[in-house]
Amino acid sequence: MERLIVTEDGSHSLYSPQYNQQYHSLQGALIEAEHIYINLGLRPVLSEAASTVRVFEMGFGTGLNAFLTWKLADLLKKSIDYVAVEAFPVSRDEAFSLNYAALTGQSGFMELHDCHWSVDCDISENFKLRKEHLKLQDFKSTENFDVIYYDAFDPRAQPELWTAEMFSQIAAQTRPGGVLTTYSSKGIVKRALRAAGFEVQRHKGPGRKTHVLKAIKI
Question: 29-92+107-217 adopts what CATH topology?
Fold first, then answer.
């Protein structure tokens, strides 16, 4: 089955037959990533950061969020340590077919996919990447994170990843005042985040999407 999707803003996404889900909003993969994870989540933290910012991504997927984060780190000359988990990695051939570098006018996208699993990769002077090929349930960090990109598939497809128990695991690895952003604004997600110790804010979504969530670790 053909997995490549062209979204409304011209950027590529992929389709998962296993979960019957696309990796990004059909309204625009690039617009979604920039709005929810970069502008709502990362930028406010970077603007106040005096030292290295630690970012955790649930669902490395196509690598789009990591790519945008890397380029912002270089632009602002801010140090970022980026850790991502992915249970079902995209193949190198699929990654090579994605148009994010051409669309953004930025180079180096495949460096993210060529970074080996469970290895610290110095992608640039400002951006260090570590990818873990495992399920979120099996991930443990010895250091807390400042920013969380929560980009799992929809709660209908992966309900086990949107529970209070799972968000409690995330909260335990997030510093007080740390920020989590996600595209899902469903009631079950808001309740689970609050139960796990986050203060939940609802924000305008990208494009025609009504709302997204930003949660602050209390």
Answer: Rossmann fold (3.40.50)
